[in-house]
Amino acid sequence: MKKLTTLILCLLVASAVSLRAQTKMTDEQRQEALAKYGEFKAKLNLSEQQKKKVDAVNAEFAEGLSALRSSGDSKMAKYRKFSTLRSKRDAQMKEILDEDQYKEYKKFQAEMKEDFKNNRKSGSKN
User: What span is annotated as the signal peptide, if there is one (predicted)?
Assistant: First the structure.
């Protein structure tokens, strides 16, 4: 369960972060993100088969992000690899989810990206 929570957190951060911004989430932000993700998963109403596939896709994405973070590549190279990872994950999610679920997935990604931008802006003012 701890691995799944970490994986979910990585997914949320990765979905919302540009690789240029290397900020740490506070515990409060982490809890808020996890709560939003829980609401999001409930809203999708995934079947058991979909849950397994979504978890596998997210695990693969998180592994790719982990490798990317530890690489010594340039920011531009990291961004390109991140874009490739994100595109691959989106394509896999599109195959797993039905049309309405996929729309909800994209909406959730946009919301998390906006939240991250807002948190980054408020954090840089301190």
Answer: 1-21
* Residue in the structure block whose two tokens are 């195959």: 95
Distances (CA, A) of 39 to 13, 14, 35, 62, 69: 16, 18, 6, 20, 28
> CA–CA separation, 85 vs 64, rounded Å?
7
Residue with tokens 């979910």: 8
pLDDT given at position 117: 80
Q: What tokens appear for 18 in the block? A: 């540009």
- Kindly calculate the radius of gyration of the chain based on its CA atoms and give it in whole angstroms: 14
Q: Which residues does the chain have with pLDDT short of 50?
A: 18-23, 125-126
What is Dmax (Cα atoms) for the chain? 45
Contact (CB, 8 A) for 16 and 115: yes
Q: Which pLDDT belongs to residue 77?
A: 92
pTM of the full predicted structure? Answer: 0.68
Instruction: Please state, in angstroms and rounded to a whole number, the distance separating the CA atoms of residues 82 and 66.
Output: 11
